[in-house]
Structures are given as structure tokens and as C-alpha cells.
Amino acid sequence: EIQMWVIEVIMEEVSKRFWYHFTGNKKTNNINRPEYPIHHIKNIIRDSQQFLTKLPPLFSACGIYVPPKRQFIRHLVELLMQKLKRDMKEIMSDKQLMFHTVEQVIQFQEYLMSVHSYPSEDEEIMAKTDLPSCIHFFEEDEIFDIWLSS
User: Fold this and answer.
1) C-alpha–C-alpha distance, residues 91 and 31, integer Å
2) Is the pLDDT of residue 40 over 80?
3) What is the sign, positive or negative, of the torsion defined by CA atoms of 28, 30, 35, 38?
4) How do residues 91-108 score in pLDDT, each as one tens digit?
5) Stretch 74-95: mean pLDDT, rounded?
6) What backbone torsions phi and psi does residue 23 show, to the nearest 5 degrees?
7) How far apart are CA 109 and CA 77, in angstroms?
8) Residues 147, 92: contact at Cβ < 8 Å?
9) Closest by CA position to 80, among listed 52, 120, 44
């Protein structure tokens, strides 16, 4: 589909920048600061708003419509989840860090829901969404148990 292709092309560059900043020995790749990649993603969403609002009419003219902003945020959330998964072993070894990371992720998810309706409250309540949510990452038994014991 043309719509998915456009989002994938955009995300290719966004992903490169994300991984550049949040892997290796970069100052921004600080495991003790989970808010760094979260703020980076929030800035990407903010900076892309105007562009993303211009896409729906173009896609509608082609007879396809899945909100591009929704798909864009979906990909960004997937990036953050990959980053968390990469760092999880180290995060789990420090209860304070685990608590701080969970707190940051919860705040990020609240931001996505309140500002961008991602996923919408109805979808979340009814579990009728295939949209990834960072919160669900912490529902894994081992991670959840450590979080509760913090």
C-alpha cells in the first residue's frame, strides 16, 4: 500500500537517527535516563505534526485511509519498545532504575493517550487494538514482579 510505503520511508530515517543517539557510547544513550529516548520521540511527533496533517487528504484521494499520524506513532512506540528490550536486563538489575523507567514509560503512555489518543481509551479498555503500547511491555511476569517488589 502506498500509505504504508510513505510511512516506512519516513521511519527509515527516523529510526537511523534514533539508533544513532540511543546505542553505543553516546551521551544520549544513558540507561539511567530513560526519559532521553522518550523526549526524543515526543519531539519527533511534535516536529512532524504539520507534515502528518497534510497526508490524510492525499491518501483519501487514493482510496485508502489509515491515519498516518497513528501509524507514525505506532512505529515510534515500537522503536522505544525495542530500546527497552535491549536494555531490560541492565534495567532489571537495579530496582531504582526499574522504578524510574516504569514511571517514565507510564507518563509517556499517558501523554500519548491524552494528547494523541494513542491508543484511544476505548481501544485500550476493550483490548481491541493491534497498536503497541509501552505499558504492555511491563506486563511480562518477570518484569512485573520486579516492579511490584520495588
Assistant:
1) 7
2) yes
3) positive
4) 988 989 988 998 999 999
5) 91
6) -140, 165
7) 9
8) no
9) 44
